[in-house]
Design goal:
Layout: H1 18-33, H2 54-60, H3 85-99, E1 102-103, E2 106-107, E3 114-117, E4 130-131, E5 156-158, E6 164-168, E7 178-181, E8 187-190, E9 192-195, E10 201-204, E11 223-224, E12 237-238, E13 240-247, E14 250-255, E15 260-261, E16 271-272, E17 282-288, H4 289-299, H5 314-325, E18 344-352, E19 364-374, E20 380-402, E21 405-415, E22 424-427, E23 433-436, E24 460-462, E25 468-470, H6 495-512, E26 522-529, E27 541-542, H7 560-563
Parallel strand pairs: 6-15
Antiparallel strand pairs: 1-2, 3-4, 3-17, 5-6, 7-8, 9-10, 11-12, 13-14, 16-24, 17-18, 18-20, 19-20, 20-21, 20-25, 21-26, 22-23, 24-25, 26-27
């Protein structure tokens, strides 16, 4: 079903009789609350607080008119003026329409303007490489796991309050579980952690009996750090707080520095998600050509080594262009087709179209994905080669630097069929407050139920040798997903205004896209940025509780800068861009 039928403008009620007006109101209510459609519907009475005028929208298109599947020009990041939150949302929408524009037999993101970023190479210190596709569908790095790291290149988790924690791995025993000396100085392995009535942690052994711990002076269990862990000296005692926090619904130990102890390998990141058509969700990471040559120029000292931020001005862009022109064959490039985009990163999520109810409603590509063999107990998937597949786009992060914003604008988009929304508030065109009830059950791609009050618990993770395993002994399978903060805002006092702006620009874009344009079926969930300085908590702007249900599924609530922080470029896999420090230059 086309979303423009759900979010179209309201007729002129001044020409309607009283009965017709009441019928219209009933229809509007039906559109908002009807769960059987299983789509994210936009309230038809939302205040038009952030729109794109028709004349401006037409200028976004290469032909000067909004045509079905028309090629959209990129937003001009060099001349970007962030004079309002709406300006950032407009930039996000235009960039999404640009990168997903059909071009030849593919899309803009499938052209050599975008380089594929390989997964980390464990045999080479986690290094990544760049590769430009030579033809649509020539991607090689599709993976089925979501990898999350913090601002120091370390794994992170979110507790039940949304607070982010770096992860510390303690020493383990023969079964891979936490190993510690109990009060009798005997080695004991911890099966799981629970919380006592007083809030203190209880460690249970493999028979689910409470371990008589050897306690530190604080009363917390005494653990030692594993060899090679990032935060603590190898073998040193980990200083724990005598309490636990909930991570994915499970009690976890916390250090005095605020880090979480990972009681099981794979808990912290590498989550794996499955759609209701039984397809794993696959992920692709890309950067544009400007970023690829910027990385190369900085690393090869052809751009000043004092450059510590993503480029935002013409002078740095000129230096990047010089690097491209002077590059050895076959990397020589006289100019960038769309240099005014500045540097960009894309992360996308995909499912196979097999058994997808409405594949024509998705942006699709033909490519190759990993295959797996299922164990007899359905608790493990083992890599077994690759296969050709047609994939449907379900989520997309669009990230880019602009004039005045080296921290980049971080925007995310989802397909309208993904998952039910929790309840949210917004402002109507008459200025009245309104509440959109939580979505009910329906044919959602990632849920058989209506919206839940809490984030879903992780079910699958990546184990050793790239196997996919059930978390905590679970089988391979589905979980019901909810979008906790539908428009990237929490329940604070400003959330209604922010929700209204994001809903408003979605409505403006969808109504102006031509009938039959598949991009109508994608919505901006939100965008986040800062005052131009590194993210520091108090300077976050935009939708500050933003997450994508297909890429931050088990980290809701949270936002991009919970993981992407520290110095602007980052080193060793940390910072704003986690790929910056680990990515090899295009050429020596």
């Amino acid at each position: 079903m086309n979303i423009d039928r759900l979010s179209g403008g309201t007729p002129n009620t001044r020409t309607l009789g009283k009965t017709a007006t009441h019928s219209l109101a009933a229809l509007a209510l039906l559109l908002i609350t009807q769960p059987a459609r299983a789509q994210t519907t936009l309230p038809p009475d939302v205040a038009p607080s952030c729109t794109v005028p028709a004349a401006d929208f037409n200028r976004w298109f290469a032909t000067g008119n909004a045509a079905k599947d028309g090629i959209v020009l990129p937003a001009d990041s060099l001349s970007f003026t962030g004079d309002s939150a709406c300006a950032f949302y407009r930039w996000s929408q235009q960039m999404f329409l640009w990168v997903t524009s059909p071009l030849g037999t593919g899309h803009v993101f499938e052209t050599p303007q975008f380089y594929e970023v390989s997964p980390p190479d464990p045999q080479n210190g986690g290094a990544r490489t760049l590769r430009a596709p030579t033809a649509p569908g020539q991607f090689l790095s599709f993976a089925s796991s979501i990898s999350l790291v913090g601002d120091k290149g370390q794994e992170v988790v979110f507790d039940s309050t949304g607070k982010v924690h770096n992860v510390v791995r303690p020493e383990t025993g023969s079964t891979g579980r936490i190993a510690l000396l109990n009060a009798a100085n005997q080695l004991a392995e911890v099966k799981r952690v629970v919380t006592a009535q007083d809030g203190k942690p209880l460690l249970l052994d493999k028979t689910d009996r409470v371990i008589d711990i050897k306690a530190a002076p604080s009363g917390a269990p005494e653990l030692r750090n594993e060899s090679g862990a990032l935060r603590d000296t190898s073998g040193a005692i980990i200083d724990l707080l005598p309490k636990t926090v909930l991570v994915n619904g499970r009690p976890a130990l916390v250090t005095t520095a605020g880090a979480v102890i990972d009681t099981e390998q794979g808990q912290a990141d590498k989550s794996v998600l499955m759609a209701r058509n039984k397809s794993l969700v696959y992920y692709l990471l890309q950067v544009n050509d400007v970023l690829a040559y910027f990385k190369t120029g900085v690393q090869d000292a052809k751009i000043s080594p004092t450059q510590t931020e993503f480029p935002t001005s013409q002078d740095i862009l000129d230096k990047i262009t010089t690097v491209a022109r002077q590059a050895p064959a076959p990397h020589t490039k006289q100019q960038f087709p769309d240099s005014n985009t500045l540097t960009m990163e894309l992360k996308s999520s995909w499912v196979e179209t097999t058994d997808l109810a409405n594949p024509g409603d998705y942006i699709t590509i033909n490519t190759t994905v990993p295959t797996y063999t299922q164990s007899a107990d359905n608790k493990t998937l083992t890599p077994a080669g690759t296969k050709p597949a047609k994939l449907a786009l379900v989520g997309l992060h669009v990230v880019g630097s602009t004039n005045g914003h080296p921290e980049m604008i971080w925007a995310t988009f989802e397909h309208v069929n993904n998952a039910p929304n929790q309840q949210y508030t917004y402002t109507t065109a008459s200025g009245a407050p309104a509440t959109k009830p939580a979505d009910g059950a329906g044919s959602w791609l990632f849920s058989a139920a209506g919206a839940s009050d809490s984030p879903p618990a992780q079910r699958m993770t990546v184990g050793a040798n790239n196997t996919i395993v059930g978390a905590n002994g679970q089988t391979i399978g589905l979980v019901d997903i909810t979008r906790i903060n539908p428009w990237g805002s929490d329940s604070g006092s400003a959330s209604a205004d922010t929700n209204t702006q994001v809903i408003s620009i979605n409505k403006s874009i969808i109504e102006q896209l031509a009938t039959g344009d598949v991009r109508k079926n994608y919505i901006l969930v939100g965008a986040i940025w800062t005052d131009g300085k590194p993210p520091g908590g108090s300077n976050l702007l935009g939708t500050i509780a933003i997450s994508n249900s297909t890429m931050e599924t088990f980290q809701q609530p949270g936002n991009c800068f919970d993981c992407h922080g520290g110095n602007m470029l980052g080193s060793g896999g940390g910072g704003l861009s986690h790929i910056w420090g680990k990515t090899s230059p295009l050429f020596p």
